[in-house]
Every structure is written in C-alpha cells, then in structure tokens.
Design goal:
Layout (H helix, E strand, L loop, with lengths): L1 H18 L19 E3 L3 E7 L5 E6 L6 E4 L5 E7 L7 E6 L4 E17 L1 H4 L13 H6 L3 E9 L14 E7 L1 H4 L4 H14 L3 E7 L11 H4 L22 H7 L9 E5 L8 H19 L6 E4 L19 H9 L7 E4 L15 H16 L11 E8 L2 E7 L5 E2 L7 E4 L4 E4 L1 E5 L3 E5 L8 E4 L10 E2 L8 E2 L7 E2 L3
Parallel strand pairs: 1-7, 7-10, 7-11, 8-10, 11-12, 12-13, 18-24
Antiparallel strand pairs: 2-5, 3-4, 3-6, 6-7, 8-9, 14-15, 15-20, 16-22, 17-18, 17-21, 19-20, 21-23
Helix pairs in contact: 5-10, 8-9
Organism: Algibacter aquimarinus
Pfam family, one: SASA
Protein name: Sialate O-acetylesterase
C-alpha cells in the first residue's frame, strides 16, 4: 500500500507540473560574459543582465553597495540593472537571488575593459601557429602570472540570427602561463602593458576568427545598406567566417551591453581586393557597434595590414596590390571619429601573412590608447602621414603631418618612385631634407608630377619619425591607369 501511495503521489505531482508549468521555478541565467573573475569597467555605470521566469523577483547584492537592488523580470523573463562601479582595487562579490537561485560571483575587479576582434592576425596566440611563431613566447609565458589582468575568449561559432548568449567560450581567467598560451598575442601584450602602466586591473575580451570578411562582423541592419542579406537555405556549418552577419550574430551581439572602455581591431587581409568597398563598410560597422553599446564614440584603434607577398608585385595599379587597402585603412582615420591606427610597414614578413612581431603591433595600439584615451600626451602615437608635395630642382619635396620632431631612416630611404605626366613610375632616389621633409628625384623623370612610396604588396618600410613610428605607404596621385617602368 505504501508503494502504491508513493506512486500515486508521484503521478499526481507530474500531472500538476504538466497542467500548471508556471509553478516550476526556473533558475536565473546569466550571460557567459558576466561571471566570477570578470573585470567591470571602473568608475562608471555598468549593466548586469540575464534571464529568468516572467516577472521573477530578483535581489542583487554588490559588495561595494550598501543596499541590495531589487528588480522584477519583464513579461519575457528579461532583466537588467545599472550598477555604479568605483576605482576600488579590492575584489568584489555579486550575489543574485531569486526563489530558485542563489548565484555568487566572486573575485570581480573594477578596471579597464577592452574588446579585441578581427581575423587571424588578431587571433594569433602567444604560442603562434604551426611553423609561424609569435616572438618571445617563452619569457612572455614565464612572466605572465598576473591576478590583475583577466582574459575572456569567445570561440569561433557562426549564427544566422542574433544570439542573446555566447555558445562557446573560455571563461574569465587570471593571466597565467596556462591561460595566455592560446590567447590572442596582441590582446595579451596590450592588456599586460596597459595594466602595468596604469597600475589598475585590466580585462581583455577576445573575439576573432581567421580569414573572416568584414561583412561577417556586421549586423544585418548595418550591412543591408550596402547589399541584400538573405541566409535562407545557406549552409553556415562551413566558412561561417565568410558569410555576411554570421559572426556579428554569435560573437559580437551577445557581448552587448557589457561595458567597455574601447576596442582594438586587426582585419582587412580578406577584404584587400575591394578597398573602396572596405572604406564604406568599416566605418559603417564601427558606427553600428557604437550605437548598439550605447556609450558614445568609444575609442576604436585598429591595425593597418602588414606587407606580404600575396600574388607578387606584378599588378601595380590593381586592387590586388594591397597598397590600395592600406590606403583605404589610412583614410578611415578621417571617417571614424575617435579612432587611431597602428602602421606595420616595417614588421611584415614576405612569405608569412602572420608577422611574428605581435608585441610591436600591440605597442603601437597602446600608444594610441595612452595618448588619446588616457591623456599621456608625451607618448607619441601618430605615424608620419603624407600631407603635400611641391616641385623643386627637377624633383619633388614631400611634406608630412605628425613629424613634429623630424623624420628618420635606419640606413637609406628605399621604396620611392616618381612619375611624370605619362603616369609611368620609375625608381627614385630619396633623402630626408631639413630633417622633416623627403626629397625625391630620378634622372628618368625630368618633369615630375607624382610620387609613390612602398606601393606594392611586399615591401619593407624605411621611413619613420624619430620615435620609430613608420610612415604608411602613400601616393600623391589618384591615377587609376598608372604603370611602372620596365626594369
């Protein structure tokens, strides 16, 4: 009889659960990015959010606040609150309670939070790729243990629709020999040096995918202004990184609205054959991301792609010459408010699209952040940029912006070409004039009209300012039918 009564009770409970499912209390669910060990942007108002039962009453206690915050989820079970942070360097605790949940988030720090995205050069980890190293890995790993530097990685997943939460990820971790090994080298070097310089906690969020097109990182709303988006019937199980909107949906959208200080971006190799399109899409992507975060024009610092042989240096005036995409990226400085660029003309590798000098790239991004974001005004961040040219002594004098303390070359200036009205470019001699200009001349061009510098896929930059920031490749013309003299 006892067994029969227990069986009857179980059946009754199961039946009630089916008939009245609202009586079952679901636990509160947090987004992956909100967890123990995270860094919250300091001295501001941040957002905490999640999901629960509809109209669930939730109590949130933050250790730095005197009183708990009581909220109620909306009709769809969504909830979010604003929390004020401070400059405190003490570890914080957040407790989230409901009828079915008692969540405790521990070891949380207030500091500076940066989001890093792009393709394989941003993805490249401290350990490097097979046969393609990241320089100085051993000492970097040995010295990496730092409880004030926290790392979070989004794994490579695509989606046809915007996701609310990240599907795959490596959770927040303190920097250590184990945690940095597979973490983005640029993101790590940037974060490690920023933490050391500011003396406060730093959190680095990494979300990138090798070989990705910029279109994949754009929302449907932003990209639809430039092309039709219809993923019905599209198989995204392969090459999600090449399909429009799929990476935004799964690797960016779930991170909104986690408060950040700024973003780092290294992408462009996959779009190099369409520089004019890139010049439209890139600023549109940044504008859309900033709108979604809703925290104004936060700093956006990016890397100009490095020289690489690609298909050789044969197609001089074709978009397949990556000098054109480098030019487009440079021009985006004027199209993206509160932005900065890291020029890499001197640290490319002829036969490796993944240059090993990732710390140098991170350094140049950091200089932008220190000067423009953190007010270290004596830190030089701006590389020389072509400004104007004038004729002189059968040659041309090239003037530059951002050369306040002059120009420099390690040895001899190379990579300059000069052309007359026939639009045929000849190799030219170049020298620094008055320590701040460059004089370019060739006996083959007695009446010069235009100058180009480093205008090819593979080249080693030779022109710097006195803080060793390299000048970008540039041209003084806008010709679409220029040629090179036959050698």
């Amino acid at each position: 009889m006892e067994i029969m009564r227990k069986t009857t009770l179980i059946i009754l409970v199961a039946t009630l659960n089916i008939l009245f499912p609202q009586s079952i209390k679901a636990e509160v669910v947090l987004p992956a990015i909100v967890s123990s060990n995270m860094v919250l942007q300091r001295n501001t108002t941040v957002v905490l959010w999640g999901w629960s039962d509809a109209k669930e009453e939730i109590s949130i206690e933050v250790s730095c606040l005197k009183e708990p915050i009581n909220i109620k989820a909306d009709n769809d079970g969504n909830w979010r609150i604003d929390v004020k942070t401070s400059n405190s360097k003490n570890p914080q605790t957040i407790k989230i309670k409901s009828k079915a949940s008692n969540i405790v988030l521990e070891n949380i720090l207030f500091g500076e939070v940066w989001l890093c995205s792009g393709q394989s050069n941003m993805y490249q980890p401290i350990k490097g790729y097979d046969g393609q190293p990241t320089f100085t890995p051993n000492m970097t790993i040995a010295k990496s243990r730092n409880p004030n530097l926290r790392l979070f990685s989004v794994d490579r997943v695509g989606s046809k629709i915007p996701l609310k939460n990240i599907e795959k990820y490596t959770p927040w971790q303190e920097a250590s020999p184990e945690s940095i090994l597979n973490f983005s080298a640029i993101a790590y070097f940037f974060g490690q040096q920023l933490q050391e310089t500011l003396g406060c906690p730093v959190g680095m969020i990494h979300t990138s995918w090798g070989g990705s097109l910029i279109e994949a990182w754009m929302s449907k709303e932003a990209l639809s202004a430039y092309q039709n988006i219809n993923l019905d019937g599209v198989d995204i199980s392969k090459k999600s990184n090449r399909i429009p909107t799929t990476l935004f949906n799964s690797m960016i959208n779930p991170l909104v609205p986690f408060k950040i200080k700024g973003m780092l971006w290294y992408q462009g190799e996959s779009n190099r054959n369409n520089p004019e399109s890139y010049k439209k899409l890139f600023p549109a992507m940044v504008k859309d991301w900033r709108s979604r975060w809703g925290i104004g024009d936060f700093p956006f610092y990016y890397v100009q792609i490095a020289p690489f042989i690609y298909n050789g240096n044969k197609e001089y005036n074709s978009p397949r010459n990556s000098a054109f995409i480098r030019e487009a990226q440079l021009e985006c400085l004027d199209l993206i408010p509160n932005s900065g660029i890291a020029i890499t003309m001197d640290i490319g590798e002829e036969y490796f699209i993944h240059p090993p000098k990732k710390k140098e790239v991170a350094d140049r991004l950091l200089y932008n952040a220190l000067n423009q974001t953190y007010n270290f005004k004596t830190v030089d961040y701006a590389a020389p940029i072509y400004e104007s040219s004038v004729l002189k002594d059968s040659g041309m004098v090239i003037k530059f912006k951002n050369a306040e303390t002059g120009l420099y070359t390690h040895d001899v200036l190379e990579g300059f070409e000069i052309a007359g009205a026939d639009k045929v470019f000849y190799p030219a001699d170049a020298k620094i004039l008055n320590r701040k200009d460059v004089f370019v001349k060739s006996a083959s061009v007695p009446n010069p009209v235009a100058v180009r510098y480093a205008w090819s896929n593979w080249v080693v930059g030779t022109l710097f300012d006195t803080n060793l920031l390299p000048a970008s490749s540039f041209r003084t013309d806008t010709w679409e039918d220029a040629t090179q003299a036959k050698k």
